[in-house]
Amino acid sequence: MNTAAIIPAAGLGLRLGGAEPKAFREVGGESLLVHAVRGLTAATATGLSCFVIAVPPGTEDVVGKQLEPYAGAAELHVVAGGAERTDSVRMALELVPVDGIDCILVHDAARPFVPVDVIERVVAAVRGGAPAVVPVVPVTDTIKRVDSDGRVVDTPDRSALVAVQTPQGFEPSVLRRAHALEGAGATDDAMLCERLGVTVQTVAGSEDAFKITRPRDLQLAEWLLAERRST
Ligand SMILES: Nc1ccn([C@@H]2O[C@H](COP(=O)(O)OP(=O)(O)OP(=O)(O)O)[C@@H](O)[C@H]2O)c(=O)n1
Ligand SMILES: C[C@](O)(CO)[C@H](O)COP(=O)(O)O
């Protein structure tokens, strides 16, 4: 059995700014999307056989040609994404083959440097029987809930909180049922599974799997890549 990877890469990157969509911004001379694809192919234990990548409408052909050398032996599909991340994932999911796939990963192009061990932990947990799996890291700030006037309502117990990353891994029929639901307000795919009543399992994530969201994150990514290339 094999793994399929969906990469939502159709976001505009409004918080990052810049003239082009975030997935096409470069670190070390290569786009975030190329780094993300290469990172997934490096996790050889997953048996990755298919990529479906959701990109800004109109860029499908050019991205398809650019990514061919990086997809390795995996089948590659590039589709137009939608208005929200969940729309992009749902549209990509339609192209994931039904036969021969026992795990679907959904991984943000905006998380270009996820380590191999994180990817392999997620896939192993799905293959071990968990229907939905998310990599997580501890929360290091005190978190407060606030009201619409900015007043603190309360302070949740931090020991029960985690920050969630990607790739998130799913038993294929569970992800398909989750995306058949109304996706409004869902910021990740696990949240749709929670709405189904499916138990979501956590595994250890990594600080290196941080999401590039604001300009400073690009600087951190340049530093991380330089560190990796020097060792
Ligand atoms: N309509 C969308 C929105 C987001 N994404 C993807 O989902 C991932 C996580 O989203 P985020 O980091 O929030 O990216 P953007 O939506 O591009 O950022 P912003 O909210 O700052 O515009 C990214 O790889 C992004 O390309 C997508 O495929 N389709
Ligand atoms: C899916 C995700 O990366 C998990 O942390 C995240 O929710 C996506 O980011 P967004 O800014 O909410 O689109």
From TrEMBL:
It comes from the Bacteria. Keywords: Isoprene biosynthesis, Nucleotidyltransferase, Transferase. One of its GO terms (biological process) is isopentenyl diphosphate biosynthetic process, methylerythritol 4-phosphate pathway. It holds the Pfam family IspD. It is an enzyme of class 2 (transferase). It catalyses: 2-C-methyl-D-erythritol 4-phosphate + CTP + H(+) = 4-CDP-2-C-methyl-D-erythritol + diphosphate. Its EC number is 2.7.7.60. The record marks R158, K211 as: Positions MEP for the nucleophilic attack. InterPro entries: IspD (IPR001228), IspD/TarI (IPR034683), IspD/TarI_cytidylyltransf_bact (IPR050088), ISPD_synthase_CS (IPR018294), Nucleotide-diphossugar_trans (IPR029044). Coiled coil: none annotated. GO terms for molecular function: 2-C-methyl-D-erythritol 4-phosphate cytidylyltransferase activity. Pathway: Isoprenoid biosynthesis; isopentenyl diphosphate biosynthesis via DXP pathway; isopentenyl diphosphate from 1-deoxy-D-xylulose 5-phosphate: step 2/6. The record marks R15, K22 as: Transition state stabilizer. Catalyzes the formation of 4-diphosphocytidyl-2-C-methyl-D-erythritol from CTP and 2-C-methyl-D-erythritol 4-phosphate (MEP). Belongs to the IspD/TarI cytidylyltransferase family. IspD subfamily. HAMAP family: IspD (MF_00108). PANTHER family: 2-C-METHYL-D-ERYTHRITOL 4-PHOSPHATE CYTIDYLYLTRANSFERASE, CHLOROPLASTIC. This is 2-C-methyl-D-erythritol 4-phosphate cytidylyltransferase. The lineage of its organism: Bacteria, Bacillati, Actinomycetota, Actinomycetes, Propionibacteriales.
